[in-house]
Amino acid sequence: MAHAVEYALSEKHDSVGTGGMLLALVRHDEAVIGILRSLGVDVAALERELAKYLHRFMVEAPTQPLQLDAAEPASP
After folding, report:
1. C-alpha distances in Å from residue 30, one per residue of 4, 41, 51, 72
2. Are 50 and 12 within 8 A, CB to CB?
3. Fewer Cβ in 10 A, N or C end of the chain?
4. pLDDT of residue 42
């Protein structure tokens, strides 16, 4: 998962986890992208939300437990 490592390094994350690997798949794996689209997933929105979530967890507050922000509505 070279793309996941590249992303983690560019964002100054201290590790590569499943979130980073999922983001790499959503950005670079055409088979995964095709499957998600066939399921009706807005791949661009998923990519944005994953990147935002990872930034929040890995950069802004790395010692805080992971949790979804209920105050933010999901993107359509």
Report:
1. 15, 14, 18, 29
2. no
3. C
4. 96
| Helix H or strand E segment including 44 | helix 43-55
Alpha-carbon radius of gyration of the chain: 13
8 A C-beta contact, residue 12 and residue 59: yes
Output 3 or 75, whichever has higher pLDDT: 3
Rounded CA-CA distance 39/58 in Å is: 29
Distance CA 20, CA 47 (A): 11
The string of pLDDT tens digits covering residues 25-75 is: 888 889 999 999 999 999 999 999 888 888 777 766 656 554 555 555 554
